[in-house]
Amino acid sequence: MPAFQPLRKPVPRTWLMTDPRLGSRLLAAIQKLPAGSGVIFRHYELEERQRRQLFAAVRRICARRGHMLILAGEARDAAQWHADGFHRRNSRHRAIWHSAPVHNLNEIREALRNGAGILFLSPLRQTRSHPGQPALGPSRFGQLARLCQPAKVIALGGMNRAQAAKWPQTMVHGWAAIDAFTK
User: What is the CATH number of the domain that holds 62?
Assistant: First the structure.
């Protein structure tokens, strides 16, 4: 059962996963997201000071646009950095949003056991960010998405608005991408 999730913002249906490949286009991509979208801030490769500076710039845009901003990493860091939540499978925190990446049944169970209320299920289709990783495909993705309940499922992996529209909102709450927002 998902832990308490604050009601400050509704769970967005459209998400951007930050990635170093976006480079200088990152802030513009976040600015172009529909109002009330979500951003998962990753950028693990940066040293902490640089990561915090970039996070602060992203946070300013997210605040102006009404976006939910989730920090990939520890819950305590997300709380200290004033993120709306954290993105990690094996942690728990009851005062902020908790999302988690999941790819199989064991990871889904772990994330739900730890109270995640938003599950990023991937990869639905082949993706440039994980070359060579086999895609779940529609059938397996659908099976796993049903097992994510009661958490909100966000489809990830080769996604765009048209692909997301093919899934019933009762099964898939929303979608996330990197490349779809850079075109």
Answer: 3.20.20.70
